[in-house]
Structures are given as structure tokens and as C-alpha cells.
Design a protein that fits this description.
single chain, mainly alpha, 3 helices, 10% strand
Length: 97
């Protein structure tokens, strides 16, 4: 999913298709932050980026696990399916960009 952010001194605009649970969680975190609300859009941007990055950790951990298993399989006994698996993991990483 692509999310575009436009930030100004006192605003943050996000453009995306559909609901983004991480953005909703970031807004809840920001709205409960008390005195930090006076910091303007800066703290909101921090909350959004921190929450979005946290949402990607499970995906990255899954890819890391798959990569480790594939590497182990390739060095234990190589098969053409292992090379295909590595290419599939590479495509998954490219999709994260």
C-alpha cells in the first residue's frame, strides 16, 4: 500500500486508498499525547512514521525467516526450487519499497 504524506507547520495530509489501520492507531496515539499536542504537526508526523514502521516489522521478520530457511536449504542440498524461492523473496522485498 502506498501512503503519501504532505506536511506543513500545522498540518499533515495523508493520501491513500482505503482505510489504513496504522494511521488510525497513530492518530489515537497522538490525540492522547497531552502536552505534546502543542508541538504542532511534528509529533503527529513522528507518531505516523513510528506506527507505520512498527506495522512493517512482522512482514520483514517473515521475509527474514523465509530467507534463512531458503539459504539453509540451498547449502544443505541445492534444488531449482530454492532459486525460485530466493527470487520470490526478492520480489517481496521490492514490494516493500
Amino acid at each position: 500500500m502506498e501512503i503519501d504524506l504532505f506536511v506543513g507547520r500545522n498540518f499533515l495530509v495523508s493520501l491513500h486508498h482505503g482505510a489504513v489501520p496504522a494511521l488510525e492507531a497513530a492518530y489515537r496515539r497522538w490525540s492522547r499525547s497531552g502536552a505534546l499536542l502543542r508541538e504542532g504537526a511534528g509529533y503527529l508526523v513522528y507518531c505516523v512514521l513510528a506506527t507505520l514502521l512498527s506495522a512493517y516489522f512482522p512482514v520483514v521478520e517473515t521475509i527474514d525467516h523465509e530467507l534463512g530457511e531458503t539459504e539453509h536449504a540451498m547449502f544443505a542440498r541445492f534444488s531449482p526450487g530454492d532459486a525460485q524461492k530466493l527470487l520470490q523473496i526478492k520480489r517481496s522485498l521490492s514490494a516493500l519499497r
